[in-house]
Amino acid sequence: MSNLKSKNRKWFLLPALILILLVAVGIIRYNEKQQNSNTDPEPTFSQQMQPEAMVAWGEVTYEKIYDIVIDFPTVVTDVKVKEGDRVSLGQELVSLDMSEYLSTIEKLQEQLAAEKAGLENTKQDTAALLADIAQLKKDIETKTKEYNEETNADLVILHTALELAKTELDIAKRDVLEHQALYEAGSSSKSILDQYTDILTRREKALVDVENNIEKTKRALKTELDQLNLALQSKQTQLSQIEKSNKANTAMQHSSTNVSRIDLEVMKNKSTKQFLNDSHIVSHIENGIVKNIGVINGTAVGTQYMATRILQLIDMDSIVVNAEVDEEFIKTVSLGMKVNIVPAQDNNLSIPGEVIHISNLAVEKDGKRIIIVQVKPQDPQWELKPGYSTDVYFPTK
To answer: Torsion angle of alpha carbons 232, 235, 237, 240, nearest 10°?
Structure first.
């Protein structure tokens, strides 16, 4: 009986052993497949074939901008655009109340007609002209003193700024020398030395900027002085002509009539500008962007015939990208090179372009030397706007 139970137990154990063996083999096979799959890398986007290129950061800028200037008395009634608006040829930008200007034209026309009708009148009074000459001489004396002694308010401020800039430059030079010595002695890091070197560069630029502003202001004073002298010469010539012509009423009236005619023509010419259409300032370019609006509704412009800038128009056809190329890569860039421009606002967009200018000057930025490379984009959809940032891809092969 016991032998029978033992035999039955063996028959039950045999299938169990076979089942365990099959499970073990299955586990081993599964692990081998997993190891094989791990050794085969899955394809990634970075492994796709891409053209070899050098990438430079760039900023969208422009080569042409137009000042919209009014030099006759008028009042702004409606500003129809906002800063950054894109405009097209003929689009109305600003509406003007031209009544004062038209009234001036009418008065000049009446004056000219009266001069023509009064050719036989008595001699012309020169009191106003003498007053103008006296005022011009006084103005010339004042401006000459301001120019020679540099007492002009703007020059005084600039000279103060110049002394401050020189002081700051001297401090920056001393700081660089001190930290250069510390760096060479191992007591300071290169990054700290670079910071002080960068400060020195900025101080040098600030000094140059102030000096340039002083020269610019002096040139402006000289121009103003020359204009006053020209005006004085004109007035003196006019006075001499009137004094001579006073001997003959007809000659005097002819001279006066000519002056009136010139004044009328000059005044009429003030409104014959490309951007003026009746009482509206319009865009005189095909594709523009509005910038630096300097007026609001109700602003009086052209007061005393002084030119007033209304706004500026950026010519979108002059859009370029200034790419900052590291010094070590500039040899790979050439004029006429075809590049791709990827704007920051849409990384999926690639705009073709061509290198049109390579600067011969390097500038320091973030501790590196860069060269500005100008690229002309082929962007018929106007995706690139002034001030936008881009990546510019320069081919290396």
So the answer is: -120
